[in-house]
Design a protein that fits this description.
The complex is a heterodimer. By secondary structure, chain A is α/β, with parallel strands linked by helices. Chain A contains 12 helices and 17 strands. The mean pLDDT of chain B is 95. The longest helix of chain B has 37 residues. Chain B has a 7-stranded mixed beta sheet with strand order 1-7-6-5-4-2-3, with helices on both faces. Chain B has a 3-stranded antiparallel beta sheet with strand order 10-12-11, with helices on one face. In chain B, strands 8-9 form a two-stranded antiparallel ribbon. Classes of the chains: A alpha/beta, B alpha/beta.
C-alpha cells in the first residue's frame, strides 16, 4: 500500500515534461556510488485490513486493561468523549505550526485559551503554549533561572519527580551546572540553607513525588532571600484544591500536563506546562500566542515575541524548540473548559478522599505501613514486606497495576510502593485491591 | 478533465465575525462536566495549603464548548482541507489507519511506569520501529526519546560531545552551513558547544574550501541537512565526510529532508555517524498544529553506548527488556518519547514496506521537480541544481519591479485556496519562497497551484496594492504583529 496518487499516465507526462525517461533519472545527478543498489530489507507493504489485525494483535500483548494505581505524574483520570472528539478535529490534527496566522486562527485561539487556563490553575501571569512533557519543562525552568541570575548552581528537592531530575541532570552536565539535591525527611523536603550556592533557582514539587503536600512559604522565602528564582513542579489536578503557586510568590511553575485531557499514552505524547511572571516573559522557552488586531480592527491571534525563537535568533535563541505539543495542549484546554472550576475541584476532592480511604485500608494489612506520616493528597507510599517489583507482578494476576516500586529511585524506601488513586477508582476496586494485596502478601 | 483535489477555496469559513473566547462565553453557575458521587465515607482531612475557591476557569455548557471549538476549527487550514506546500515541513497526507493505532486502548491506556512484562506490545513497537529506521538510514541503533526534531539535535550533539570526551578530549566547535535550520545553532548552544557557520558556494552547496579552512582539532563535528535546505543534494558529501572524519570530527545528519531519499540513498552510506529523523515529516504522523512530533536519533554501532537510556534489548529467551546503555548521556524525556507518534509512524512504515517507501521518495521528488518546472518562468529557483523533494524560488524580481514581496505573494496564495509556501527561508536567498508539494498531491493539484501562482504574477504587475492587502478571503487579515509584541496580551482578561 502507498499514498501516492499518480496514475501511470501522470508519471509518463510529468517525466516527459521534465525530459526524463524513467523515475530513476530523477536521481541521475547524485554520485552513483551513493545510490542504494538493492531494495530496502523490509517486509512487503501491508493491506490495510492486515495492518489493523497487526495493530490489534500487538496491542493485545499489553496489559492495558489492568486497573491503574500507578501515578508519578501520569494519572488515569476520566477522559470524556467530547474532549477527544473535539481534539481530533482534522483542522487541529493536520495543521502545521501557525506560521500563517490568517488561516490558523483556530489553533492560535485554542492555544491562547490554553495559556489563559494554565495561568488560572497556577495563579501565574504568563504561560507558554506548551513544552514536550513535565521533565523537559523542568529543564527549561532551570534554563530560565540560570539566564535570569547568571548563576550556575541549582537546588532541587528530592521530591521532584526522579524522571525530571534525570532530565535536568543530563542538561546540567552539558551546561556545567551544579545540581544540589535536598533530601526528604519524613516525606517533606528538608532544605539545607547552608548548601553551596547561591543558587540560580530552588525547585520544589507540589505535591512532591511521594504525594506529600509541601509548604510553600518557607521555600519561597528562602529562595527570594538568596536572590534565586522559586520554582515549583505541580500536579495540575491538585490545583483544584491547593493554593495556586502564583499566589504564594513562585517565579516559575512547571508540570506534567497529562492528567488534563490526555491519555496515559505510555508516557507520550503528553504536554509540559510552563508558566512564569511578566518579569521573565522574554526568557520563556517555546511558543507564545498573543492577542492583537488585523488591519480592519478585528481580533486576531498571532505567535508573538518571536525574536526569542530559534528560527530568528539562531544560536542566541532562548531555547531550540520548534515543534512542541500543540495538540496535547489543545486537549488540555478543552478538558479544563469541560471540567470548569467546580469539576476540577471535585475530581481533586474525589481522588484525595479515595486515596485516603485506600491508605487506611492498606495500613491495616499485616506487614504493611504507610511510608511517611506527612499529609498527602491523591498519592502515597506504602512499605511492603516483599520486593515491590514482585508485588507489582503478582498484583497484575489480580487485574491491578499496583503502583510504582520506589527502591530504584529511592533506595531509602526498601519495600516502598507508590500508590495513586483517581476519581475513577470505585469503592469496590479499592476494596478488591486491598484484598488482592493481602492475598499476595500472604502467599509471599 | 479532472479537478484539483488540493484547492480548498470552497471551504466554508463561516461568517467573518469574531469568535468569542471561552471566558466571554462563561456564565457563573453553568457547567459541562458531571463528577461521580463519592462512594467512600467522607473524612475531614487536615491538609495544608488548601485554597478554596477553585481556579478561575470558564463556566460553559457542553454544547457551548462544542460549538465554540468547532467554529474555531472552521477558522483553520489543514492538510486534510487542501494542499499545504510549506517547504521543509513535509505536509503530506496523514493516513487515518495510523489514527486507529494511536487511538487503540491497548496502547493509549498504557501507564509509562508499568514494567516491561506488562507492556510487551509497546516494546515490540519500539523494537520494530528501530529496526525499520536503522535500515532506512543505514545506522545501527536508535533512541525514540527525543520528542521532536530539535530535541533529536540536542540528543545527537550530547552524544557527539560524550564521544569526544570518551576519547579524552574536549572539542567545542560544531560546524553548520549558513543555510541550516535555526534549530541547529540553537541546539548547539543548548548543548554547551559553539556554532561556527560555514558559507555556501555559488551552487548552493557547502563551500569545500571554506570548510577546510575551519577544520581544526577543536571541531566536534558538522551538522548537515542533505538534501540541504535549498532542496539541493550535497554532491560532495563523500568528500565532506572524509575530511571531517580525518580531522577527528563526527557527521550529524539533520533528517528534516529525508523524504527525498527514502530507499534511494542512506545517510549511513553517505558517512553520517548520527542521524535524526522527523517522524512527523517523513513518516506521515500529523503535525497537530505544531506538535506532537518525534525526532528519533539513530547512530553507528560505535556510538550506540552513548544513547539516552533505557533502550529495549532482546533477551536470550526472546523477550524484550529495558537496558541503559553503558555510557549513556542520560535521559532526555520523562519516559520513552512520544510513543504514540512512533506507533503511528511504524504503522505507516509497515503499510508502505520497502517498495512503498522507495516510491514515496521518488514521487516526492517528481512532484517538486514538476512544480518547479511549471512555475520556473515566474518564480525562478534560487540555484540552478536540480531540486529534490522541495525547491527554493526567489521573488526578488517582484520586489524590484512591482514592490511586491515574497510575503505578499504568500498571502495572495491564501486567497486562491492554497496554503502558502515557507517564506524567507533559508536566509541566504533574497525574498525566498520554499515549496514542498509532497508525494501525496496529484498532478492536477500541482497544475492548479502553478496556475494560481501565475494569476498572482499577473496581479502583481497590474495591481500590486491588491497583494499588499492580501489575504482578504480569510477569517482575519494580516495581524498587527508589532502591536502584539508591544502590548503583550498573553491571556484573557476576565
Amino acid at each position: 500500500m502507498h499514498y501516492t496518487p499518480h496514475t501511470d499516465a501522470d508519471v509518463a507526462e510529468m517525466l516527459g515534461a521534465l525530459k526524463l525517461d524513467e523515475p530513476a533519472d530523477l536521481f541521475a545527478h547524485l554520485p552513483p556510488q551513493l545510490l542504494l543498489d538493492r531494495p530496502l530489507k523490509l517486509h512487503q507493504g501491508m493491506a490495510e485490513l492486515d495492518l489493523v489485525s497487526w495493530i490489534d494483535e500487538t496491542a493485545s500483548h499489553n496489559r492495558s486493561e489492568l486497573i491503574c494505581f500507578a501515578g508519578g505524574g501520569f494519572y488515569d483520570h476520566y477522559l470524556p468523549p467530547v474532549v477527544r472528539t473535539l481534539t481530533m478535529r482534522p483542522e487541529f490534527v493536520t495543521s502545521y505550526t501557525p506560521y500563517q496566522p490568517e488561516v490558523s486562527q483556530g489553533v492560535l485561539q485554542a492555544l491562547f485559551e490554553f495559556q489563559s487556563m494554565v495561568c488560572a490553575i497556577t495563579g501565574m501571569e504568563v504561560a507558554n503554549a506548551s513544552l514536550y512533557d513535565g521533565a523537559s519543562a523542568g529543564v527549561e525552568a532551570v534554563n530560565v533561572a540560570v539566564g535570569a541570575t547568571g548563576r550556575n548552581v541549582i537546588w532541587i528537592s528530592r521530591g521532584v519527580s526522579p524522571r525530571t531530575r534525570e532530565a535536568i541532570e543530563t542538561f546540567s552536565r552539558a551546561r556545567s551546572l551544579e545540581l544540589i539535591e535536598h533530601p526528604l525527611v519524613g516525606g517533606r523536603t528538608a532544605w539545607d540553607v547552608a548548601a553551596a550556592g547561591p543558587p540560580a533557582g530552588v525547585i520544589t514539587a507540589q505535591p512532591n513525588y511521594l504525594g506529600v503536600i509541601e509548604q510553600y512559604d518557607p521555600v519561597v522565602d528562602m529562595a527570594h532571600g538568596l536572590g534565586a528564582l522559586a520554582i515549583a513542579q505541580i500536579d495540575p489536578i491538585m490545583m483544584g484544591m491547593l493554593r495556586r503557586p502564583g499566589e504564594a510568590g513562585f517565579d516559575v511553575v512547571f508540570g506534567e500536563g497529562q492528567p488534563l485531557g490526555n491519555p496515559l499514552s505510555f508516557g507520550g505524547p503528553v504536554v509540559g506546562l510552563f508558566a512564569t511572571t511578566k518579569k521573565e516573559v522574554r526568557r520563556i522557552p517555546g511558543r507564545l500566542i498573543g492577542k492583537t488586531v488585523d488591519g480592519s480592527g478585528r481580533t486576531a491571534y498571532s505567535m508573538t515575541l518571536r525574536a526569542r525563537e530559534q528560527d530568528i535568533r539562531r544560536e542566541k535563541a532562548s531555547s531550540n524548540i520548534c515543534t512542541n505539543q500543540s495538540l496535547n495542549a489543545i486537549a488540555a484546554a478543552w478538558q479544563m473548559a469541560w471540567l470548569g472550576p467546580q469539576g476540577l475541584a471535585e475530581i481533586a476532592d474525589r481522588s484525595v478522599q479515595k486515596a485516603h480511604y485506600l491508605a487506611r485500608k492498606l495500613a491495616q494489612l499485616k506487614g504493611v505501613a504507610l511510608a511517611v506520616e506527612a499529609p498527602f493528597g491523591r498519592e502515597f507510599p506504602v512499605m511492603l514486606p516483599l520486593e515491590p517489583v514482585d508485588v507489582v507482578k503478582a498484583m497484575a494476576d489480580h487485574g491491578f497495576l499496583a503502583g510504582i516500586p520506589l527502591p530504584a529511585d529511592y533506595p531509602e524506601f526498601p519495600g516502598g510502593l507508590l500508590v495513586a488513586v483517581t476519581e475513577k477508582r470505585t469503592k469496590r476496586q479499592l476494596d478488591e485491591y486491598a484484598d488482592a494485596l493481602e492475598e499476595v502478601l500472604k502467599n509471599g | 478533465m479532472a479537478e484539483a483535489g488540493g484547492r480548498a477555496s470552497s471551504s466554508p469559513l463561516l461568517g467573518g465575525g469574531e469568535e468569542p473566547t471561552l471566558a466571554q462565553l462563561s456564565q457563573v453557575g453553568r457547567r459541562a462536566s458531571s463528577t461521580v458521587a463519592l462512594d467512600v465515607p467522607r473524612r475531614q482531612l487536615d491538609l495544608p495549603e488548601l485554597a478554596p475557591p477553585p481556579p478561575n476557569l470558564p463556566e460553559v455548557s457542553e454544547h457551548d464548548l462544542v460549538m465554540h471549538v468547532n467554529r474555531l476549527a472552521h477558522r483553520n487550514y489543514a492538510a486534510d482541507l487542501g494542499a499545504y506546500p510549506l517547504g521543509s515541513c513535509t505536509m503530506k497526507y496523514n493516513p487515518k489507519v495510523c489514527d486507529y493505532a494511536a487511538e487503540h486502548g491497548g496502547f493509549k491506556n498504557l501507564h509509562p511506569a508499568a514494567p516491561a512484562e506488562l507492556t510487551r506490545g509497546a516494546l515490540e513497537v519500539l523494537w520494530e520501529a528501530e529496526s525499520v529506521l536503522c535500515e532506512v538510514t543505514g545506522m545501527a541503533r536508535a533512541t525514540f526519546q527525543p520528542p521532536a526534531g530539535a530535541a533529536g539535535e540536542l540528543t545527537g550533539l550530547l552524544i557527539m560531545r560524550a564521544y569526544h570526551e570518551s576519547q579524552g578530549r574536549l572539542r567545542t566547535k560544531v560546524l553548520i552551513p549558513d543555510a541550516a535550520h535555526g534549530t541547529n545553532p540553537a541546539s548547539v548552544t543548548l548543548s554547551g558547544l559553539v556554532a561556527v557557520v560555514v558559507p555556501s558556494n555559488e551552487r548552493g552547496m557547502v563551500d569545500l574550501e571554506a570548510l577546510r579552512s575551519v577544520l581544526d582539532e577543536d571541531v566536534a563535528g558538522l551538522m548537515l541537512t542533505n538534501p540541504n535546505t535549498l532542496g539541493i543534494f550535497e554532491e560532495e558529501i563523500s568528500e565532506i565526510a572524509r575530511i571531517v572524519h580525518q580531522a577527528g570530527g563526527l557527521l550529524y545528519y539533520d533528517g528534516a529532508n529525508l523524504n527525498a531519499l527514502l530507499g534511494v540513498v542512506r545517510p549511513g552510506d553517505m558517512g553520517f555517524d548520527i542521524v535524526h529523523s522527523n517522524l512527523h515529516k517523513t513518516f506521515a504522523t500529523p503535525h497537530g498544529g505544531g506538535g506532537p512530533g518525534a525526532g528519533p536519533v539513530a547512530v553507528t554501532e560505535e556510538l550506540a553506548r552513548f544513547l539516552p537510556g533505557p533502550v529495549p534489548v532482546r533477551r536470550k529467551d526472546g523477550m524484550l527488556e529495558w537496558e541503559v546503555p553503558s555510557a549513556s548521556i542520560g535521559r532526555l524525556h520523562g519516559y520513552h518519547g512520544n510513543f504514540l507518534v512512533v506507533l503511528r509512524a511504524l504503522t505507516y512504515m509497515k503499510a508502505l514496506g520497502g517498495d512503498g517507501l522507495r516510491l514515496t521518495g521518488e514521487r516526492a521528488v517528481l512532484n517538486a521537480r514538476y512544480l518547479a518546472a511549471l512555475v520556473a518562468d515566474i518564480l525562478p529557483a534560487a540555484f540552478e541544481a536540480p531540486c529534490m523533494h522541495e525547491f527554493v524560488a526567489t521573488a526578488a524580481h517582484f520586489k524590484k519591479e512591482y514592490g511586491v514581496r515574497a510575503m505578499d505573494l504568500a498571502k495572495g496564495l491564501l486567497d486562491t485556496g492554497f496554503h502558502a509556501p515557507t517564506m524567507y527561508f533559508p536566509l541566504i536567498v533574497e525574498e525566498a519562497l520554499m515549496f514542498e508539494p509532497t508525494e501525496t498531491q496529484t498532478k492536477q493539484t500541482l497544475e492548479a497551484l502553478a496556475a494560481a501562482i501565475k494569476e498572482l504574477a499577473v496581479l502583481a504587475a497590474s495591481n500590486p496594492e491588491a497583494l499588499h492587502e492580501a489575504p482578504i478571503k480569510t477569517p482575519v487579515g494580516r495581524p498587527d504583529e508589532a502591536a502584539c509584541a508591544r502590548n503583550l496580551e498573553l491571556q484573557w482578561v476576565r
